[in-house]
């Protein structure tokens, strides 16, 4: 599971969960805190998109309270929308093209290449 937070200039934060773990409201709020500190943001507009069958972490009470406290605005994007999320086009496509044809010895090497 990978959480990618990015803006028009590129990737801001890449959060990779260890195998077997899943994202929940606590983990999601920790990621948002790291984003706030990484970019020194007082407020933010974010588009959240999840491909999950469970309750998305951004709809949990704890996360909603976090978003209200820091006055972050959310632009919803339905999980099964026929429209592409911006990340589908502007982020994942370039990453896939960059990784195409490359071989990796292990997961750490792959993660390092994605971060680069």
Mean pLDDT over the residues: 76
Major beta-sheet overview: 2 strands, antiparallel
Overall form:
globular
Q: How much of the polypeptide forms β-strand, as a percent range?
A: 15-25%
Structural class: alpha+beta
Widest sheet, order of strands: 1-2
End-to-end separation:
18 Å
Number of strands: 4
Q: Provide the CATH top-level class.
A: Alpha Beta
- The radius of gyration is 15 Å
CATH fold annotation: Nucleotidyltransferase, domain 5
Count of helix runs: 5
Task: Report the CATH superfamily.
Answer: Ribonuclease H-like superfamily/Ribonuclease H
Helix content: 25-40%
As for the number of domains, it is 1
What is the H/E order?
A: EEHEHEHHH
CATH architecture, by name, is 2-Layer Sandwich
Poorly predicted ranges (pLDDT <50, ≥5 residues)?
Answer: 50-54
Pfam family, one: Transposase_1
GO molecular function, one term: nucleic acid binding
Organism: Plakobranchus ocellatus
InterPro entries: RNaseH_sf, Transposase-MT_Hybrid, Transposase_1
